[in-house]
């Protein structure tokens, strides 16, 4: 018999998510927690104003009645709930990576840092035992996807991850009807919050409609609870801006077309498209898109806080 060889030098196993003490205490006690992504801070909002937005979003979750858990990977460690110093780092580093699910394993293994997208935030939140997540807009099917195959991993992750995401629809640069079709194929549950009009991120109406609406945080929580007992995968709650808080729809159509043309002209592709386009929009609209972007994230964070509170109140 061959002598048993000592194993190869061990590569340390990937770290389980590290929970902040506030998040850990809340989860242990069954109190409501809402996960927040860091890509929208690091790659969606301009520095240095993104740092104040990070605090405002966490405060909005608290106003809704839950503990905020912003998620990012720092030096190879996935963190669920960030300290003020860690939020400083996420918001200040211009070279921070953008980590979707497939990138997480590399960052963890090689000790890298990065902001988490909807897909990787959802995965880490679910691993930590968090059921509710707030963001701005989901990724989805890009216009031209028939040629480029550019479809966000957000969709496939939501088809497998038992979590409720509050958003203002999908990113406005996407093909919205195609994204809704893909969510149907992937069996992602989608409900409007007090509307069957699917919101268009900066604008209240994307032009697409939904089959279902929920009328309260309790109903939204009940849909997630029912889904969990039934099939893997998540629930999207689409929360539109009120008409008087949206971006002027005419300005919207003009600046989006302009930004997409600029991205095509500059040859920007793949995961760089969204940061490029958002920066362009904020500039050509003279900050109008930025103000609306922050407002819709705050509204989603507060609603997510209420839904998490309703979920925590359900009998287990
Ligand atoms: N929507 C925004 N700003 C953003 C994003 C979405 O208004 O920064 C981010 C989210 O983190 C989302 C990601 O998960 O873009 C999707 O990127 P991609 O299309 O490259 O998959
Ligand atoms: Mn993409």
Automatic annotation (TrEMBL):
The superkingdom of the source organism is: Bacteria
Q: Summarize where Mn(2+) binds, as residue positions.
A: 150
Note describing how the cofactor binds:
Binds 1 Mn(2+) ion per subunit.
Give the enzyme class: lyase
Write out the catalytic residues in the record: 37, 171
Catalysed reaction, written as an equation: D-ribose 5-phosphate + uracil = psi-UMP + H2O
Q: What Pfam families does the entry give?
A: Indigoidine_A
Provide the alphabetized UniProt keywords: Glycosidase, Hydrolase, Lyase, Manganese, Metal-binding
The terms under GO molecular function for this entry are: hydrolase activity, acting on glycosyl bonds; metal ion binding; pseudouridylate synthase activity
- EC number(s) on file: 4.2.1.70
- GO terms under cellular component: cytoplasm
Provide one Gene Ontology biological process annotation.
Answer: nucleobase catabolic process
Tell me the residue numbers annotated for binding substrate: 98, 118, 152-154
Keyword Manganese, does the record have it?
A: yes
Report the InterPro entries cross-referenced here: Indigdn_synthA-like, PsuG
What is its cofactor?
A: Mn(2+)
Asked if Metal-binding is a keyword of the record, the answer is yes
Task of the protein: Catalyzes the reversible cleavage of pseudouridine 5'-phosphate (PsiMP) to ribose 5-phosphate and uracil. Functions biologically in the cleavage direction, as part of a pseudouridine degradation pathway.
* Record-stated family: Belongs to the pseudouridine-5'-phosphate glycosidase family.
Record text on subunit structure and interactions = Homotrimer.
Kindly provide the name given to this protein in its UniProt entry: Pseudouridine-5'-phosphate glycosidase
Gene for this chain = psuG
């Amino acid at each position: 018999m061959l002598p048993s060889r000592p194993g190869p030098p061990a590569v340390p196993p990937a770290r389980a998510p590290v929970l902040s003490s506030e998040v850990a205490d809340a989860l242990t006690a069954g109190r409501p927690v809402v996960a927040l992504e860091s890509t929208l801070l690091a790659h969606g909002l301009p520095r240095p104003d993104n740092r104040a937005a990070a605090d405002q979003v966490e405060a909005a979750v608290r106003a809704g009645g839950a503990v905020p858990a912003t998620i990012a990977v720092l030096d190879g460690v996935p963190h669920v709930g960030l300290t003020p110093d860690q939020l400083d780092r996420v918001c200040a580093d211009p070279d921070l990576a953008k980590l979707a699910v497939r990138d997480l394993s590399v960052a963890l293994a090689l000790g890298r840092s990065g902001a988490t997208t909807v897909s990787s935030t959802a995965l880490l939140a679910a691993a930590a035992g968090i059921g509710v997540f707030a963001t701005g807009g989901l990724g989805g099917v890009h216009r031209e996807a028939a040629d480029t195959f550019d479809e966000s991993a957000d969709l496939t992750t939501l088809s497998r991850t038992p979590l409720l995401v509050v958003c203002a629809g999908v990113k406005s640069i996407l093909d919205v009807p195609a994204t809704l079709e893909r969510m149907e194929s992937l069996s992602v549950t989608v409900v409007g919050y007090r509307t069957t009009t699917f919101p268009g991120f900066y604008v209240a109406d994307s032009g697409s409609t939904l089959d279902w609406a929920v009328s309260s945080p309790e109903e939204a929580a009940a849909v997630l609870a029912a889904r969990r007992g039934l099939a893997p995968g998540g629930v999207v709650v689409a929360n539109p801006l009120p008409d008087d808080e949206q971006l002027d729809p005419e300005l919207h159509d003009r600046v989006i077309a302009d930004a997409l043309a600029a991205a095509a002209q500059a040859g920007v592709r793949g995961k760089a498209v969204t940061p490029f386009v958002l920066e362009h929009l904020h500039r050509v609209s003279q900050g109008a898109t930025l103000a609306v972007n922050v407002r819709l994230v705050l509204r989603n964070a507060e609603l997510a806080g209420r839904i998490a509170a309703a979920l925590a109140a359900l009998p287990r």
